[in-house]
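Board notes (copied after class):
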Amino acid sequence: MMKRFFLLALTMMSLSACSEVELFSHAVKTSREPAVGSVTQQGTFKVGKTYTVLGQTYTPRETYSFSETGIASWYGPGFHKGRTASGEVYDKYEMTAAHRTLQMPSLVRVTNLDNGRSVIVRVNDRGPFKRGRVIDVSKRAAEMLGMIGTGTAKVRIDLLPVESRIIAEAAKTGMSTKGAEVAMNQTGRLPDEIIRAGGGGALQPVSIQTASANVPGHVAGGNFYPDPVVTQMPVTPSQIYVQVGAFGSQENAQKLVSRLASVGQATVYPSNMAGRTIYRVRLGPLDSVNRADNVLSRVIAAGHNDAIITVQ
């Protein structure tokens, strides 16, 4: 299996950037997951153990308070009908996503900061494994967010705490939570059967039809898919940076700025966090995702392996 993994990794060198990301993600997933024959369509709650990919270590955890900004990517045809990390079958027509640490399932709102388009997706997979990306959305979600053509987008991710806790509890009972994301996009409420199973009686139960002439949608692969409703958020200016470090000491931050002189012009950005000043060292603003990727690669090559791409 490992031999197959490395052959796949070598093959990526001749592919385009988008194909490279998809193939590598697939290689990592298939190298550490059982065969597709063991997929499940029942509800499964999963967090997982600490794992390392490309020198980066990730520790999944169950949380109901989470928000981040960064660069989103999407994955589609190469994974369609394959097995996700949660055990479900990946369907590119559904509103799902892959995240490196959030529990599966969980519900997050993804907002495209460039055009203000915002949708809710259900996390059921692990990834993305390309440095500088914070979430991989399904092809359908990418279409709704308006990021198919670009392949990436500046996004904000906000976990829905109440609804995520309910679908987690429902999944722990063995109930499938597929479709919860569609209901949230269309009605702003979870289906009543999931609310009951998840112990969320305080929420107003709202049923959702999944195949009816009264529900807008489309047919793909012989299946009916209700169309989610896109929320239009206000567009506020945002910039891309490569963040190399964060310090409690301004002196240490300035020392890092000096060490980064060979890479580019770095700046210290002070911010308040829980009553304490944190000094973040960043390169930027950068005018494109490609430019940020290039700068990130140079920073990592210079020995700063914890550097990340951030959006502010």
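Comment from the instructor: The longest helix spans residues 17-32. The radius of gyration is 20 Å.
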